[in-house]
Fold each of these.
Amino acid sequence: MPKQAQGGSNVDRRNFLALAAAAGATAGALPPTEAASAAEPAVNSSHAMHAEAAALSRPDPATAAYQFFNVDESAFIEAAIDTLIPSDTVGPGAMELGVATYIDRQMAGAYGKGDRLYLEGPFGEGTPQQGYQLLMTPAELIRAGIADINAHAQKTYRRPFSALSEQDRIAVLTDLEDEKIELTTVPLATFFGLLLQLTVEGYFADPMYGGNKDKAAWKMIGFPGASAMYMDKIEPFRNRPYTVEPMGIADLS
Amino acid sequence: MTTKLNSVDILIVGLGWTGGIIAKELTSTGLKIVALERGGPRDTNPDFLDPQIHDELRYAARHDLMQNVRRETITFRNNDSQTALPMRQLGSFLPGSGVGGAGVHWNGVTWRWLEWDHQARSRTVDRYGERIIPADMNLQDWPITYDDLEPYYDRFEKTCGTSGKAGNLNGERVDGGNIFEGPRAAEYPNPPLIAAQGMVMFETAARNLGYHPFPNPASNASQDYVNPDGVAFGACHYCGFCERFGCEANAKASPHFTVIPLAMQNPDFELRTNAIVLKVNLDATGKRAVSVTYLDARGREYEQPADLIILSAYALGNVHLLLNSGIGVPYDPATGKGVVGRNYAYQCGGGATAFFDEKTIMNHFMGAGALGTCIDDFNGDSYDFEKAGYIGGGGISCSNSGARPIQYHPTPRGTPRWGSGWKKAVVDHYDHTTSVGNQGAVMAYRQNYLSLDPTYTDAFGRPLLRMTFDFQDNEVKLMNGQADICVAIATEMGAARVDRNISPVPYSIVPYQSTHNTGGAVFGADPGTSVLNRYLQAWDVPNVFVTGACVFPQNAGKNPTGPVGALAYWAADAIKNRYLKNPGPLVQA
């Protein structure tokens, strides 16, 4: 995963890529480091320690690259989630908790591909009460929506959404939520609803899905997580704070 | 190419609570019984084990244990003037699939419906006269009374290890129980669960206002328990992962570890999973069912002949099968004639969200599915319909079923949906909020019904079930009246801020509301207004019985599983002790 934003700022993806390329690496998919190469066995303890340190700093391949999003799309997602749930004094932001990875994995997987959607025609718009009626899987909707918003940002601000100032990003997402802009393909409320839903899901879901890193969102609200046995606590802790280190499914497996 | 199989005596379609109860009860008959379940097999170990079952995303948000609408869904419209469109993803309600059905992932609330619910029309007419019933309301009595069903309610509670407190023991009112309930012959098999903070506050407030609070009857065992069939339950962990999840402790009663394993011990019983029943086949007279057609996991088609067929799928699935099989006359809203699909009903909700300051700590994540405190002072006919302006009422409760954060992070109305303001509100309110909710009854109306869709089909080429439904004037008044009462209670609880709400009007298929779909194949005394007789036997095809919430003539302000389970025992009794001795109509039309 590329460098993650801190304190509400967001690294411009294209600039980051340029820097990474100049440094001889592709962002998010770093080649094996020389130090860990088997062709160059460690000859003394200092080398071994060096190799170990390099291994520790190497990104985890399970989360270090995007499976679904292309570079434009991942730049949008990173900027969007950083705006929807920014890092601030109250608690962590979605970007630093790995929510971009979460959304990428959801879009690459069964949910994104519409494994639980009825997608037979004919297709009609219907009433709001009749719900989702698009010929699009969640992944197709997100992809088309990103392209739509980037086209809107290009037209209005002469740059993609990810290159906008925080203030302008907030303005675009507010107009999207309030249905005050026009987009080519996606219905505004449906796209915004899915984007926000995915962001909140990734923020609060079990960390094994890629977001909620270190269970930081659970710590922030005081949710104890997957370790859930309260038969001897519900009465003694009535109206009393119950503070524990939250546990995720991986911690307990 | 259809493979015709050897005939069996009894065929059960759908193996949840009702199919499981009937399979188990018919064990001693010595007859060959086959159950066809559209979903897969599953068991507590290994499918519902901790920690994996405590996965909110997979089970609560992605509906892992529920029906997959990719293959089979319904279409929906609010009224006849609209074109129904498919429910393309689950929302308002969550039908189950797989062994145990929705009995695996329910909350465990196990009511006896109020006496009024069983005799809604005659009791209403007796007290208020015909004129109080709106012209388009098909208010209808059950063909049996609460007293007829009492022993079967008792049976189901004992099977489930229901935890609660009686409020009416043999006609004696018991303080602390539900004084509005019908007379019970026995106390609940287990004592009530331990109340959480919000419930304690609700109880005090409700008493201050002159109401009669009592613990929700919960099939989440409050202690280790062995039921009369010898099935062991663990005590509830209050883990807060209950509805939408399987229970790792076997504390939440479920057919998959109670009645179904007992049925499986019968060498004459066979369960076939991933077996999707497409239709019931009738003989040339149309008066007798001869077989069902089903697909196995590979899509191979079979015809399974049987002498007796029990439709025990979900309420909507049963009605779909009846319509696709030509059993009973389909309902026509234009003429009011026909019965299959008639009297579809739902529930209506809303209430008050109560936000407290940081000194009040709810620990809402310590919860059990059915953990809650309730009042029935405005349910059934406990209140004055004329004064309130609505019929049916609802249970008003403060529940504590968990606080899983993807779906539970309450914020006051007007809070931004995102950004720093949203996050601050989530942190400020997460552990300091509870709600007072109304589970409102929905009556049956001429214009609310189920039928076959003319356009859309499922993956097997069958027309989808079409739902035409909206909340009517009575229900809108009901939701508003009950919400006002909820607000008054929340205010009395000392909430710093109270947000009042009702279900979306017009009814919307989108947000989750309730998996309490009822009607469409109702039982009754008159074949002109019912599909089934008092024993849940089809009037028109007497070797077909139908179970589940589709049999209720209208809905109640209470969860349906109690009477659904009781009626399964009632029907099993009738099949075993009446029908099998003399196969044919048990009631003459």
Amino acid sequence: MLNEWHMGSLLLQLIYNGLVEGAILALTGLGATLVWGIQRVANFAHGDYMTLGAYVAFLLDVTWSTNPVVAAIGTVVATAALAVGLHFILLRPLRGRGLVALSLITVGLGLVLRNALFLVAGSQPRQYAFNQTAVIDLGFVRVAPAELWTGIAAITAVPAVAAMLAWTPLGKTMRAVADNRDLAEISGIDTDGIGLYVWIVAGALAGLGGAMLALVQGTFDPNLGFNVLFLILTVVVLGGIGNAFGALLGGLVLGVVMEVSTWPPFFGGVPTQYQPVVGFVVLILLLMFRPQGILGRARVL
Amino acid sequence: MPVSYAEGGAAIVSDTILSVSDVRARYGDEHILKGVSIDVPRGSIVALLGPNGSGKSTLLKAIYGLNVKRSGTILFRPQGREAVDLLRLKPHEVTAHGVNLVPQLANIFPDLSVYENLEIGSIGDRKRTVERIERVVGVLPLLRHLLRRRAATLSGGQRQTLGIARALMSEPELLILDEPSAGLAPNIVDGVFAQVQEINRRGVSLLIVEQKARQCLAIAHYGYVLDQGRNQIDGPSARLLEDPEMIRLYLGARRRQPESH
């Protein structure tokens, strides 16, 4: 009886964690899918944009002791600026070289960013100035202050981004360009000029996601984002490549599935270190039975 | 054809909204157009015909500057404004000047709703978007009860109609259609051609690439036939429909006796 109650409570806890992790994957996966759909780049440096965000947040939170909201805003601005800068300096001049060439360049870019962080910030694990032992009881789950902040970030950012995509002119324009680039251009949209906004959104969300991931993990080092890169690319494929709402949904689903898979009543619970395996099993099953992704459609292309 | 007079009294031979002169176009090393010239008189429907691979669709891409290397002159003369050489413009600028194009395939945004497809088509003053949607739905009423649907779920004929409606949202003076009848059932094709005539009656000039030559000439005022990247035959539609060489080479079928064994 006590055990059943415990298992139920644990399940709620896992779902909460899963939604937070899912939000991180949703926000970063959305950025990657927009970049892929609109800029025609599979950005393998996306994880490293996240890491950079985590370190900017560390700088603001620990080194300069600003409050978490200021730190979050500063992080988002910094990574958006980084993404836009690299767009103009590196990626835009190389456009038209093809998906493979551009994507390989981002592999190198990620390597450079990652190692620059190792050089500047060092390899020692870092953690934010949150009390890691305090517990806040929310009634249905008990969370640490860091988890509470990531939860708040998740339930604000995901609906905000979804609303932006659904209702604002910029959101509709980005979805249209990702959906059918030539027709968007024919419809009077400067599809080249939209790149600026795509990178602002993708960079900002990567920074936010990176800081949230660092908070969730407790400690982090310069490999933080790179470690989840393939999960982000999984989200892009899960949602249906180029489909923004699909990426949001795919990220949330993947996060929850990976967390809940560790619940003991689920075949004894998958060991935590095998969580990514669960993610990829989900991906493989989806590709077998619904290759166009959750919300994607079969493309003639 | 109304003959207009420029200041000083010099006659302009004809009032053309689009003059394509000696246009060459290629994909990489593959030269598709080897010098094509066509004129679209203002307010008319012009049919662009010819066998597969003759360069019809490539000419449309060259006019719009989509994925093709081009040279020559493509003069667009908007009403009451200065003529502009489309060869110097990016596709979205061509649209801003008063042209629009409905491609043959991929002519809608499948992931967007029908309403959003129309919103994206609207350019310039966003406040007029709702009014424009109302007007376009008035011209193409079959869209009225489909506005909330995701465009991917539409049938072939509905998609074609939405493609045309999206293009009309920019209030173009010249509308270019690439094979509007492709892949549609015969009864639906009639509907699409009726829509084209309705749009023309409202003052829009049209340039239409078509495989269904007879049907297209039946609604067009003038026709051009391209073959192997060059002009072959052109003339008023009524004359082309009677022209023996035109019938033998490009209209065929209809008058041939069924072969008996």
